[in-house]
Amino acid sequence: MNCSDRLIGVDEPVAWREALEGVPHSFYATWDCCHAAALNTGWPTQLYVGEREGVRVVCPLSVRQHRGAIDWVTPTGFSGFASNGAWPGFADHWAAFAKGRGVVCSYLAQHPDFGDGALEGAAAGEEALYFLDLRQGLDGVLAQADTTRRKDWQRWQDRGGQFVTDRDTLAAFLLAQYGPFMDRMGAGRAARWRDDALQALLQCPSVGLVGTADAQGQMLAVILYGWTAWGAEGMLQASLPEGRDHTIALMLGGVRDLSARGIPWFNLGGGVRSGDSVAAAKRRWRPREASFRRLKQTYDPVRYAALCAEAGVAADATEGYFPAYYATGSAR
Known about the structure:
- Strands 1, 2, 3, 4, 5, 6, 7, 8, 9, 10, 11, 12 and 13 form a 13-stranded mixed β-sheet that branches.
- The longest helix is centred in the middle third of the chain and has 19 residues, at 167-185.
- The protein is 34% helix and 28% strand.
- The chain starts with a strand and ends in a 21-residue tail after the last helix.
- Helix 2 packs antiparallel against helix 8.
- By secondary structure, the chain is of the alpha+beta class.
- The chain is globular.
- A hairpin with a 2-residue loop joins strand 3 (55-66) and strand 4.
- It folds into 2 domains: 3-121 and 300-328, 3-Layer(aba) Sandwich (Aminopeptidase), CATH 3.40.630; 131-290, Aminopeptidase (3-Layer(aba) Sandwich), CATH 3.40.630.30.
């Protein structure tokens, strides 16, 4: 059986988009999103494309180095492997390809709606993500949600809350307020988007923005999300301090927009930690829950063990950051 493998760079947008045609995938796998992610991290970013007898497997990757050792990581969000059909034995094929490229290991955040056990090989760790079903529109989402969500929505309307849809206004607010908002949230550098990366996201044709304002028309909050034909991903938001109670309305503004576009689901993400208050708040929507898999794969165990020994960490550690040898180092 003839197989082919290639890596398409983020500097090849046409080839990247062509490779995704006919393959169900998340917004996090698109060139637009990965280009913005590459600006944000500074890491070389590529799309793996494997093909065999009409089956195509894709996987976006960012390339990191630590003491000369190469590892691959999901550029941002949840993507991992996606395909247009079954490829038995792909996990072994993938591991051989990665080892042949001199890659020591990889950490892939596998999207639950696009992965497949035969593609992934062994998965390490699971965590719930929460998906709103948009097929019945805003009314369907509200009917599914618990009573507190419907009351929050009614309270926001009774206070005269308004949606803001002018894209220029929304983009300017996001660029001005995202940094201060993340400061108040105590977010570290790794959790933030740089201004140039945000600007790139805002140029994406499949990125939406919805904002909310109070009864006097003062804008207080904005949400940004991206979509493909298969579903939408909630990516980031920003608000003034007095806009914190606009979160429910922001979500429903996104629901209204996406359902009008015919997008079937909206991924709200998960909690910061399993079972925390963030996850509990998302469960009040009574969403579909699906497990996001953390794929921690080692292709050169000897080199991996040596790097862990240099860092003073156990090579067989499965919890915490991966690769474990980054515990005392950094990627370039």
